[in-house]
Amino acid sequence: MQLWGGATTRTLRAHWMAHELALDYEPKLVGPRTGETQRAEFRTLNVKEKVPVLVDDGFVLTESAAIVTYLADTYGPETGLVPQPRTRLRAQYNEWLSYVQMELDAHTLYILRKHIDLAHLYGKAPAAVEAAIEGFKKQVAFAANRLQDHAHLVGDGFTGADIMLTSCLTWGRACGIELPQALDDYTRRMTGRAAYISAAKLNFSVTPDGS
Ligand SMILES: N[C@@H](CCC(=O)N[C@@H](CS)C(=O)NCC(=O)O)C(=O)O
């Protein structure tokens, strides 16, 4: 099994789940702006030219949330790292995944990324940046509500949904956004997990542009 991609929050999600499951795999730590994702070998795996990408015995899967879920479904169905399919807990897990990807990642944090760090590629857009910061603060209250009186997002234990949320909370903090206390405490607990620490060490051993 190969897991392509390193250096970013989204690639960390996939490595983190692989480490939770103690999988034996080959990390291909290409960064997003190293030119590696434009190479022919990579484009045959993912024409979107984006990481992460999982290759499991010829089966190719893109999208961080899909990889996190597939790994746990396939290699840890009894671990509780994803709720069993066709259950209400699984429906709630899906709800959290969609929320994190859309409300915290695509609509808000990625806007900051594009128009601050990557402004040389996407242009400056101060009004969009301001709205994205406000949008993140508003949307993250949904997670803060849940974590006020629960240790995890879904049911009683740690799942892939916690991987997805934690990745956006650390990303938000790196953008200088202050989090409510419940989310700060939660982030501290999640990033203290052994699998997070080992996955982050691996993932961030490279930089996005290969420097
Ligand atoms: N929705 C995708 C987003 C993947 C994505 O945008 N990856 C970035 C790195 S975080 C990338 O590969 N960017 C390269 C590029 O845009 O050229 C996921 O969650 O996996």
Any overview of this molecule?
This protein is α+β, with helices and mostly antiparallel strands and 211 residues long. The chain has two domains: 2-81 and 196-203, Glutaredoxin; 88-193, Glutathione S-transferase Yfyf (Class Pi), Chain A, domain 2. Helix content is 58%, strand content 7%. The protein is built from nine helices and four strands. It has helices at residues 9-20, 40-45, 64-75, 88-117, 119-122, 126-148, 160-174, 181-190, 194-203; strands at residues 2-4, 26-28, 53-56, 59-62. The protein has a four-stranded mixed beta sheet, covered by helices on one side. α1 crosses α9 (194-203). The longest helix is centred in the middle third of the chain and has 30 residues, at 88-117. The model has no long low-confidence stretch (mean pLDDT 97).
Features:
Glutaredoxin; 211 residues; 4 strands; 9 helices; 7% strand; alpha+beta; binds glutathione; globular
